[in-house]
Amino acid sequence: MPNTGRSSANPWLRLLLAGVFEIGYALSVGGSQGFTRLTWSLVAVVFFLLTLWALSVALGTIDVGIGYAVWAGIGSAGAALLGPAFFDETLTSIKSLWLCVIISGVVWLKLADRSEDTPEPADRPQDTQGIVAGSQEAQGVKS
Questions:
Q1: What is the pTM of this model?
Q2: pLDDT tens for residues 3-13?
Q3: Residues with Cβ within 8 Å of residue 17, at least 6 apart in sequence
């Protein structure tokens, strides 16, 4: 994809935002009790649309596999961490351990993506006049 001069952090910030919306969606779906409570159901629909929008914008630049894994990791870890605050759920030490594994994986995916963003230096500068002259000679055009 062409570089439009925007910071490489912008798609990752959008992906983080999509993850936050995903947390809101997961929690509101839980609160809707199978979409039987109108207020929670409407909030769930809003968060669903927001998370899809932010995810689709972020995936315009970030690889789909990496972006989806990060988005799902943020959503699942956030919902598991905030579930006890909103609902009658428990967060045991073993659940916390595995959430840390998910969060560590998300961080490592981001770090792995950063190393691929750095452009490799060119071996030598290209002489544009030589290229044009060479292609003209190949076509039989005299200067």
A1: 0.69
A2: 454 566 799 99
A3: 54
